[in-house]
C-alpha cells in the first residue's frame, strides 16, 4: 500500500489539482482578417485598448487582495499561530510514529517527512507566485506604450501582426491574473502545483514575443539604414549632376554676358562713331603725347640761361588749391590762370597747360574715370580753327560714353535727339552752354554716386568766343558757372580742371553759384 515518496508526491499534486480545478476564463481570440491596411491599424488599436483595460482590471484586483489581507491581518495572524502550534505538536507526536514505522522500512521515514515538506512548499509557493505575477505586470505595462511607438516608427505589416499578437497575450495574462487573485487562498495554492499553468505559459509567450519584436525592429532598422544609404547615394548623384548642370548654365550665362557686353560695346561704339561723324570735334584719339611734345618744344627751345620755369607734379602737389580740389568733396572746379615768361611771345600756348598734362597722366596711372580736351593744339591758333564751347563739351561727353556705355538705350535715344534737334543748331553762347552741359549730364548717368569723374578742359579761353575782350571774359565766366551748376546736378562726384591764360580771368565776375565752395582758384600763377 505504501509507495515511494516521488510517486506519492505526483499523485498528490495531480489528485489535488483535479479536486480543486479552477474555473477558467475563456481567452479565445477571433481569427484576424486583414483585407486592408486600415483594418489592421484599427485592429491593433482595439487590441491595445483591451490590453490596457485588462491590465487596469488586474491591478485593481491585486490592490483589492492586498487591502483585504491588511483588513484581516489580525484574523490571519491568529490562524497562523494556531496552525503553527498545531503543526508543532503534530511533529512532536508524529515523530514517534515515524521512528516506529522506520523499523519496518526506512522509506517510510522519507515518505513522512517528504509529505510534510510538500505541504510546507505549497504554502510558501503561494507568495512567490504572486510576486512573479506582480513583476510580470510591471514589465508588460512598461512595454505596451513602447510597442505602440514602434508601430509608428516602423509601419511594417509583419511587425504590426506581431504587436497585435502581443496585445492578445497581454489580454490573456491580465484575465488569468484577475482570475488568480479573485480565487480563494486554497485555490491559489492548488494552482501553484502546476508548473505549466496558463498564467505562466502566457508570461513566457509574452517574453518570447517581446524578444521577437526586438529582433524584427533591429532588422527593420538595418533595412531602413540600408535604404537611407542608397537614398543618400542617389541624392549625391543627383546633386553632382545638378552641380554640373548649374556649372554648365553658369558657363553659358557667362558666354551670354560676354556676348551681351560685346554687342553693347559694339552698339555703343557705332553710336559714338555716328555722333562724331555728325560734326567736327576736337581730336583726342592720339592721346596726350602730341600735345605734350608741342609744349616741350615751345618752352625748351631757349638757351639754358633763358629756359623758363616749368611746372612739375611736385610743385603742383604743394599748391593748396590743388590739394583742396582733390580731397574736399565740396570742391568741384579748380581754376588755374597765369602768364608766360615775358620773353615767350612767339606762341599763345600757356605754361600752365603742362599742369593739365601732368594731372591727366596721374589720373591714367591711378585708373580714374576721366575725359579731357585741349582747346589749343597749335602754337598759334586762328579763329577759323577754334571750336565752339558746345563742341568742346560734346567731345568730353562722347569720351565718357566710350569709357562707360550706358546700359539704358533711352539715354542713347535722348542724346541722339539732343544733337540732331533744333536747339543744337543755335550759335548763341548761352544756348551752347546749356545744351553742352545737358549732353555731359546725360553721359554721366552711367556712373554711380560713389564714383569720382574728372574733366580736364585746357585753355577754355581758346574756344570760339567773340573777338572782344569783354565778351571773352563773359564767356569764360558763363562757362565756369555752367560747369558749377553741372557739378551740383549730376549724381556722381564730378571734379573739373579749367586752365586759362591770365587775360581771360581779369575782372572775372561770377554769380552766387560760384561762391559756395565749389570753385577753387589759383590765379596769377605766372611763369618766371
Automatic annotation (TrEMBL):
Coiled coil: 225-266
Protein known as: Fungal STAND N-terminal Goodbye domain-containing protein
Keyword Metal-binding: no
Species per Swiss-Prot/TrEMBL record: Corynespora cassiicola Philippines
InterPro entries: DUF7708, NPHP3-like_N
Domain DUF7708 residues, every copy: 82-224
Pfam families, per the entry: DUF7708, NPHP3_N
Domain Nephrocystin 3-like N-terminal: 315-498
Amino acid at each position: 500500500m505504501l509507495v515511494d515518496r516521488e510517486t506519492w508526491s505526483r499523485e498528490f499534486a495531480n489528485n489535488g489539482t483535479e479536486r480543486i480545478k479552477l474555473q477558467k476564463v475563456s481567452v479565445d481570440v477571433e481569427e484576424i482578417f486583414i483585407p486592408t491596411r486600415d483594418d489592421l491599424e484599427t485592429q491593433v488599436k482595439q487590441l491595445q485598448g483591451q490590453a490596457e483595460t485588462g491590465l487596469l482590471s488586474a491591478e485593481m484586483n491585486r490592490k483589492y487582495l492586498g487591502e483585504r489581507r491588511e483588513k484581516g491581518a489580525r484574523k490571519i495572524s491568529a490562524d497562523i499561530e494556531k496552525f503553527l502550534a498545531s503543526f508543532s505538536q503534530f511533529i512532536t507526536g508524529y515523530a514517534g510514529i515515524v521512528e516506529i514505522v522506520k523499523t519496518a522500512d526506512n522509506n517510510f521515514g522519507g515518505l513522512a517527512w517528504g509529505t510534510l515538506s510538500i505541504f510546507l512548499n505549497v504554502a510558501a509557493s503561494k507568495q512567490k507566485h504572486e510576486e512573479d505575477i506582480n513583476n510580470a505586470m510591471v514589465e508588460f505595462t512598461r512595454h505596451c506604450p513602447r510597442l505602440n511607438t514602434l508601430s509608428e516608427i516602423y509601419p511594417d505589416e509583419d511587425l504590426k501582426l506581431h504587436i497585435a499578437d502581443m496585445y492578445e497575450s497581454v489580454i490573456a495574462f491580465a484575465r488569468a491574473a484577475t482570475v488568480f487573485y479573485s480565487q480563494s487562498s486554497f485555490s491559489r495554492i492548488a494552482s501553484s502545483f502546476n508548473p505549466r499553468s496558463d498564467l505562466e505559459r502566457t508570461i513566457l509567450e509574452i517574453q518570447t514575443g517581446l524578444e521577437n519584436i526586438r529582433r524584427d525592429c533591429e532588422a527593420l532598422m538595418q533595412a531602413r539604414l540600408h535604404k537611407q544609404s542608397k537614398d543618400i547615394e542617389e541624392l549625391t548623384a543627383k546633386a553632382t549632376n545638378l552641380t554640373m548642370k548649374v556649372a554648365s548654365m553658369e558657363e553659358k550665362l557667362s558666354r551670354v554676358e560676354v556676348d551681351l557686353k560685346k554687342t553693347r560695346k559694339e552698339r555703343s561704339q557705332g553710336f559714338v562713331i555716328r555722333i562724331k561723324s555728325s560734326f567736327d570735334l576736337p581730336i583726342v584719339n592720339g592721346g596726350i603725347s602730341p600735345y605734350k611734345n608741342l609744349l616741350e618744344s615751345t618752352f625748351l627751345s631757349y638757351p639754358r640761361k633763358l629756359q623758363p620755369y616749368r611746372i612739375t607734379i611736385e610743385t603742383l602737389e604743394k599748391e593748396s588749391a590743388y590739394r583742396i580740389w582733390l580731397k574736399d568733396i565740396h570742391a568741384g572746379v579748380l581754376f588755374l590762370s597765369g602768364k608766360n615768361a615775358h620773353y615767350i611771345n612767339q606762341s599763345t600756348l600757356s605754361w600752365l597747360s603742362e599742369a593739365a598734362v601732368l594731372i591727366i597722366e596721374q589720373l591714367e596711372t591711378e585708373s580714374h574715370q576721366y575725359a579731357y580736351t585741349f582747346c589749343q593744339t597749335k602754337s598759334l591758333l586762328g579763329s577759323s580753327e577754334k571750336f565752339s564751347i558746345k563742341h568742346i563739351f560734346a567731345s568730353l561727353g562722347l569720351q565718357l560714353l566710350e569709357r562707360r556705355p550706358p546700359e539704358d538705350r533711352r539715354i542713347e535715344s535722348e542724346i541722339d535727339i539732343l544733337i540732331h534737334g533744333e536747339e543744337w543748331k543755335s550759335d548763341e553762347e548761352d544756348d551752347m552752354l546749356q545744351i553742352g552741359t545737358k549732353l555731359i549730364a546725360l553721359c554721366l548717368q552711367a556712373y554711380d554716386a560713389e564714383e569720382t569723374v574728372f574733366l580736364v578742359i585746357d585753355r577754355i579761353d581758346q574756344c570760339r568766343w567773340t573777338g572782344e575782350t569783354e565778351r571773352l571774359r563773359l564767356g569764360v565766366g558763363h562757362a565756369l558757372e555752367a560747369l558749377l551748376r553741372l557739378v551740383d546736378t549730376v549724381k556722381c562726384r564730378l571734379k573739373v580742371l579749367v586752365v586759362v591764360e591770365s587775360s581771360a580771368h581779369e575782372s572775372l565776375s561770377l554769380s552766387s553759384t560760384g561762391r559756395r565752395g565749389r570753385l577753387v582758384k589759383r590765379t596769377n600763377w605766372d611763369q618766371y
